[in-house]
Amino acid sequence: MKQPPNLQEIQEAMRPGRLSQTGFLGTDPRPLGDILAEDDATVRRLGLSHEALADRMAYFREKGVAGLGVPVDVPPHFEVRVDGVRGRMPCPFRHPGLYPKVFCQVKNLRTRETITFSDLQIHMIGAHGFYEGRGSAYRLEPETLIRVLEVSPAESSFNTPLHEAPGGAPSDSPRE
Ligand SMILES: [Zn+2]
Known about the structure:
By secondary structure, the protein is an alpha+beta fold. It has one domain (about 5-150). The protein is about 30% helix and about 20% strand. It contains five helices and four strands, in the order αααββββαα. It has a four-stranded antiparallel β-sheet. α3 (about 50-65) runs antiparallel to α4. The protein binds zinc ion.
């Protein structure tokens, strides 16, 4: 599918060796516009927003930072560790400013799953709905984020549509 020139340029900048060594797209052959559209559809289908996911990620990052590299218990059943390395990264969507290379690892002790994300990823998800391309080592599947971080739809949305219920009970959905 054809995409606007600015998205095309952003996609070029996401290739390996441009803004980062590994790039942002992995082996994903799709145009950036399609990657964004598909993840957007997934998040909406689950009754959530990119902002809600980013807020939840920022919440854990905030809790974990107090540990200065040592895991911090976050009720009810999370363990969070925040680590930083030297350097900063620019947003590939060309926002001014640089994001420190701070990584937040969240372990869900109930599901025994762990995910790791960076400050830049919190920004890219919240501001751009970008979770990286498939095959990228850093790709964050929206479903995985939602499950591991236990992101729930905003309590302010009164009209939860009944037909939006995802298949199966949320806590017992089989994996794989
Ligand atoms: Zn940005």
